[in-house]
Amino acid sequence: MGVLTFALASSATVSVYFIGKDDHQDWILIAMSLGQVAASGIVIAIVVFFSERDVNTNDLCKRSERLFCETFPRACLLIDSPIENFRGWEFKRHRPKDTTEAYKKSPTKIQVSHFPGQIDSYYKITRPCGQSLTIRLQVNVGEVVVSYYIPAESEEHKDDIAAMLKWAFSRFLNESGYEGRWYFSNESFDGHDYASIHLTKNFDSDFLENERKKLFMANDVAASTRGIMKDCQKHSIKTSYS
Question: Which three-class secondary structure state does DSSP give residue 228?
Answer without folding.
Answer: helix
